[in-house]
Specification:
355 residues; mainly alpha; 63% helix
């Protein structure tokens, strides 16, 4: 019992440390990456290569006044950013970050250190918690007593509903192939190769499902080209127009945490998680776990850079274009992918490799 408590505490502490560390790193990457894409310098004054710029930003946010609009609904206005950060932090716990076979801690074998312990509904848990992420945005928009904030909250809810359907159907194809809701089993099902060279990653068999999932993730995280809930050209800053100081920082952090979880989930579902195609590790225990965590971290880092690259490459959609894409394009394609996986499984072709 004592070892289980220690394992859970270590996993929670590690996940929290990773997410909170990723936020300032991604802030720096976002600003330097945009400068690289736009052929300018970006932050380069505070520390070498501007590495200390996120620290200065934190100090600025902490020392700014946290004001309350006179017409705001105070309790909901103040709790909305708290809910946003709690929901964002609650999803990462179910994501497996590496193999945990043969791991020992304090001389005793441990189970679930790198994989959510006994969470047979891991994917369902992530979707259930992540779907709550739109509520703080709607509540913030309504409680601010600002018409631009209210429009941003309404846009966030409509956008989430539209793209969650397509994203869920895309993931159903993965579940059909794996036959399990456990994310670690989904990763293990993608180990090995087809035809001796192609990885068994789900993106090879279900490229359409992977594309739908990635596009839907952009919409779910309110990232360009789908950042309509906070479009500054139309809504000043959208749902967080009236927020400042630490309240604004909570919304800002939750966006980057959602990005990290989305990147980790895409890596797990479609890109093999911590596995490398055709490579069987000759060792186990902690060396294998550390190597798996490194592979997983590199894949997630590539996805995070993809988020930044898309933001500073593609223009923002109009809201009618956003909704039309979700209902008229993404949803039918997700149904098509669902039917494709059903045909493949029905014909028994899943084990034979791609076609």
């Amino acid at each position: 019992m004592g070892t289980e408590v220690v394992v859970i505490a270590l996993k929670l502490a590690f996940g929290l440390a990773v997410l909170l560390t990723t936020v300032p790193i991604m802030v720096w990457v976002e600003r330097r990456g945009s400068a690289l894409i736009q052929d300018r310098l970006g932050p380069n004054r505070v520390g070498p290569l501007g590495l200390l710029q996120p620290v200065v930003d934190v100090i600025k946010l902490v020392t700014k006044e946290n004001f309350l609009p006179s017409r705001a609904q105070a309790p909901i206005y103040l709790l909305a950013p708290v809910f946003a950060i709690i929901i964002a932090l609650s999803t990462f716990i179910a994501v497996p970050i590496g193999p945990d076979d043969g791991l020992t801690l304090f001389g005793r074998p441990v189970d679930g250190l790198l994989v959510a312990p006994h969470l047979d509904i891991g994917l369902l848990y992530i979707f259930a918690v992540a779907s709550l992420g739109v509520y703080p945005l709607v509540l913030a928009g309504w409680a601010s007593a600002n018409k631009f904030s209210m429009h941003g909250g309404i846009r966030a809810s409509a956008q989430a509903i539209s793209y969650e359907l397509a994203m869920t159907l895309a993931v159903v194809g993965v579940l059909m192939g794996a036959g399990s809701l456990r994310l670690d089993e989904i990763v293990l099902q993608q180990s090995g190769t087809w035809l001796g060279m192609l990885p068994r990653w789900n993106v090879v068999v279900q490229p359409l499902g992977a594309l739908i999932f990635v596009v839907a993730v952009f919409a779910e995280t309110n990232r360009l080209p789908f950042d309509l809930p906070e479009a500054e050209a139309e809504l000043v800053a959208g749902y967080h127009t009236e927020y400042s100081s630490l309240s604004f920082a909570a919304f800002y952090m939750s966006e980057y945490i959602h990005m990290t979880v989305a990147a980790a989930l895409a890596t797990t579902l479609f890109f093999g998680g911590w596995t490398l195609p055709g490579i069987e590790l000759p060792f186990g225990g902690w060396p294998q776990a550390l190597l798996g965590m490194t592979v997983f971290g590199l894949k997630v880092a590539l996805f995070l850079w993809f988020f930044v690259w898309v933001r500073w490459t593609l223009p923002r959609f109009r809201f009618d274009q956003l909704m039309a894409l979700g209902w008229k394009v993404m949803l039918p394609l997700a149904v098509l992918n669902f039917l494709w996986v059903g045909v493949v499984l029905g014909l028994g072709l899943m084990e034979e490799g791609p076609w």
